[in-house]
Design goal:
heterodimer; A: alpha/beta; Rossmann fold; six-stranded mixed sheet; four-stranded antiparallel sheet; 10 strands; 40% helix; B: mainly alpha; 2 domains; 24 helices
Chain lengths: 267, 509
């Protein structure tokens, strides 16, 4: 065995034992504002982790750094043992990742099928495989009826669904989904839950951010709570809840005060 | 409400200025003021015949008014979009009146008074009364620009979605006519001063943009009825257009007339491009060039201006020397307009970042698509017009220059698109920074033809036909080399800067 192939073999060996996602000391500030402060998080293989936190907690920033879309000021992100921010790990990690970012655009003037076909071929997938998977994804997400509609004319829910389809197209091992259920109708949400359950059952891992505590409790087996850019607690659902509901545990962790109505309602 | 809306517009504009670069805006302002001063100067010049001054000013006012309308139709409402007020319990006519008043109080509109004051200067040459008629004409033309601009933005602007898609053709046509007229302005002014084209005089006088000048011309000759009629016409036209504004506003705010855009089904279409990563990018790019008004508009302008610039001298004076270069001119303009592709695509760059190794295919696919869009047309136009012109000397110049330009532009486009990436504004339109990228790219594109042109020139100077013909292989060689090398440089730059560019786009979104 040559030195290079031995190193590659060792890297694969380490990767085989590594966590699905490993974040170490990730830090990011914008101007003078610290968005993520030395965040650590480890997601084991086969886990379905729900990332929860109040608005502005840094969830999107953290997930963007974890997926190679936003360069951290410091810290490390590894996907199945491969460093997201340096080669050769960056290439391998992107092959293994499926990403649904929040707030980033898709090409408005393509149809859903055109987008999937473009991305599949760009990833070097065989033409027939791309066509088959695009067919199935469009059918499963109920986007077949919009065959001729441009993505720019999709509803918010349809955009979310085609975004999920792009994340799933190449058969990733780790899905990182930022608010995947936002604006998705109940029927499509059920379909999406079934897809995500199937993905976990097949050995995949998922990190999902969400504001819906009930959904996280129902779907996820692991939870991480993020506030002011720091991971306050992470672990299994039971560990994080500590005998309460997730919503109660979350409110206690982030220090939310009692909810009050508006002053003029009382008059 | 008007004062409140003016305050709101001021606050939004201040925030936009705080976020963006002020330099390009100041540069645009200085350019506009210089152009305005140039127009004003035309009013102070003494003409051999007084009527000629009115004709010249009528023509230039047409460019100002047409340019303003085209800009409004393309850009729409940069700050106060009608949709912002859709949920407020405001009476529609009151809102329409308030928005119109706010637009008429736009400081940008006040800038128009500088060029439009040319009619005052022209009138002053004849006397105080003609100058007063000029004041009325300048004010009424400014009001017309404000009212018509408001309605044009409402009907054809980006907020009108479907209307904007259809309006792309209209806007492209308008900008093209103005560009051609702008380029040929010195010649047109000469024609008007010499009265050698009566149809042109009739045209500039019959258009509303010329009515102020016509009124001043009549006042100078004490023909008071003919001085009053055009002014009354300007006021009436503004009034009629203003009456349509509430209707346009209502359609905008209720979303009427905005059916979904659809793409033609393609399942049965045979794939022409290779089913590879480069082919996939090229196919995506070809669709965007055809479907996206931000891309299609400049492409249409390039086609119209490129052909017209070279054909008009032939049509008017019989001078056909420029005909062989219409294809090359089209390519240079199209290249310059494609200098900000990554800025136009916005945050969808994340798709490229997420797919490992997709940087190089993205660059090559974009080059291929642009070449497929412009190349066959430019080659056919060059061959056709060179043959029609009957100028045998021009063949090596035209073919060599075109080959060099096509390749050079293919290399420049991705590189320029990754150099100072400028995001679109909130309404999805190019910002004032865009032209500041277009002109350097245009110059750089033209310069890529320099080696081929030098060889053709050497052949002419030496009297050696074969040497002139050497310009063709030289053009092909430099074009191929530049397309390849600059594309490779762009691919490296994309790999290094893609995350930073995405951050820039996301911050602007």
């Amino acid at each position: 065995m040559t030195t290079a192939s031995a190193e590659a073999g060792n890297a694969e060996g380490r990767a085989a034992l590594a966590a699905a996602l490993e974040l170490r000391g990730l830090r990011k500030s914008f101007g003078g504002t610290l968005a993520v402060a030395d965040a650590d998080l480890s997601v084991r293989r086969g886990a379905f982790l729900g990332l929860v936190g109040p608005n502005g907690a840094g969830k999107t920033t953290l997930l963007s750094m974890a997926t190679g879309l936003l360069r951290p000021d410091s810290g490390q992100a590894r996907v199945l043992g491969h460093d997201v921010w340096s080669e050769p790990g960056a290439t391998r990690s992107k092959e293994l990742l499926g990403v649904l970012p929040d707030g980033l655009a898709l090409p408005d003037r393509l149809t859903g099928r055109e987008l999937l076909s473009y991305l599949g071929l760009l990833r070097g997938m065989p033409t027939a495989l791309v066509a088959d998977r695009a067919d199935e994804l469009l059918r499963v997400f109920d986007l077949e009826h919009a065959e001729r509609t441009l993505i720019g004319d999709y509803s918010a829910g349809m955009r979310k669904k085609i975004g999920l389809a792009t994340a799933l197209l190449h058969g990733p091992h780790l899905l990182v989904l930022d608010e995947p259920f936002e604006a998705v109708d109940p029927v499509s949400a059920a379909v999406l839950r079934a897809i995500l359950d199937g993905f976990i059952a097949a050995g995949g891992s998922i990190v999902m951010s969400s504001h819906a505590m009930a959904l996280v409790e129902r779907l996820c087996d692991h939870v991480a709570v993020l506030s002011h850019g720091q991971v306050l607690r992470s672990g299994t659902l039971a560990q994080v809840r500590g005998g309460h509901s997730l919503e109660e545990a979350f409110a206690e962790l982030v220090g939310a005060g009692p909810a009050r109505g508006l002053s003029w309602f009382a008059s | 409400m008007v004062r409140l809306l003016i305050g709101l517009r001021g606050a939004i504009t201040r925030n936009q200025l705080r976020q963006g670069h002020r330099g390009p805006l100041i540069a645009a302002l200085v350019l506009a003021l210089l152009s305005g001063a140039g127009t004003l100067y035309l009013g102070t010049v003494s003409y051999a015949r007084p009527a000629a001054g009115a004709d010249v000013i009528a023509l230039v006012f047409g460019l100002w008014l047409g340019g303003s309308l085209a800009q409004k139709a393309l850009a729409g409402e940069p700050t106060l979009r009608p949709e912002m007020f859709a949920l407020l319990p405001l009476r529609r006519p009151a809102l329409a009146a308030a928005l119109l008043a706010v637009n008429l109080a736009d400081p940008v509109l006040l800038l128009f008074l500088v060029p439009f004051a040319a009619v005052i200067a022209l009138g002053a040459q004849a006397g105080a009364v003609a100058a007063i008629v000029g004041v009325a004409g300048a004010l009424l033309t400014t009001v017309l620009a404000g009212v018509a601009g408001t309605v044009a933005a409402g009907v054809l602007g980006p907020g009108a979605r479907r209307g904007h898609d259809i309006g792309t053709m209209v806007t492209a046509l308008a900008i093209s006519i103005i560009s051609v007229a702008g380029v040929t302005l010195p010649w047109l002014v000469t024609v008007l001063r010499e009265r050698s084209a009566p149809w042109l005089i009739a045209l500039v006088r019959v258009l509303p943009s010329g009515w102020a000048a016509v009124a001043v011309d009549a006042a100078a000759r004490s023909q008071w009825l003919w001085a009053a009629l055009p002014l009354a016409g300007l006021a009436a036209l503004s009034g009629v257009i203003a009456l349509t504004w509430p209707v346009v506003l209502a359609r905008r705010m209720t979303g009427a007339g905005t059916p979904s855009r659809t793409a033609r089904p393609h399942a049965k279409r045979r794939a022409v491009l290779p089913r590879t990563a480069v082919g996939a990018v090229a196919a995506k790019e070809l669709r965007l060039w055809v479907r996206d008004p931000i891309r299609l508009t400049p492409l249409l302008i390039a086609v119209i201006v490129g052909a017209a610039m070279c054909a008009i001298p032939k049509l008017i004076t019989g001078t056909g020397q420029l005909l062989p270069f219409a294809g090359a001119a089209t390519v240079a303009i199209a290249a310059a307009c494609a200098c900000n592709l990554y800025g136009n695509d916005g945050t969808s760059l994340w798709l490229i970042i997420s797919v490992p190794g997709s940087g190089r295919p993205d660059i090559r696919g974009r080059q291929l698509a642009w070449l497929l869009i412009t190349g066959p047309y430019a080659v056919a136009l060059t061959v056709l017009l060179t043959a029609l012109s009957g100028q045998a000397w021009a063949w090596p110049w035209a073919l060599g220059g075109l080959a060099a330009l096509l390749g050079g532009a293919c290399g420049l486009i991705p590189l320029a698109s990754l150099t100072w990436v400028v995001p679109l504004d909130d309404a999805g339109n190019p910002t004032p920074q865009y032209p500041l990228k277009v002109y350097p790219t245009l110059i750089a594109a033209v310069l890529t033809a320099a080696p081929a042109a030098a060889v053709a020139l050497a052949g002419v100077l030496a009297g050696l036909t074969w040497l002139s013909w050497l310009a063709v292989p030289v053009g092909i060689a430099t074009g191929t080399a530049l397309a390849w090398k600059l594309g490779a440089v762009a691919a490296g730059r994309l790999r290094r800067t893609q995350v930073t560019v995405l951050r820039t786009m996301a911050s602007a979104a």
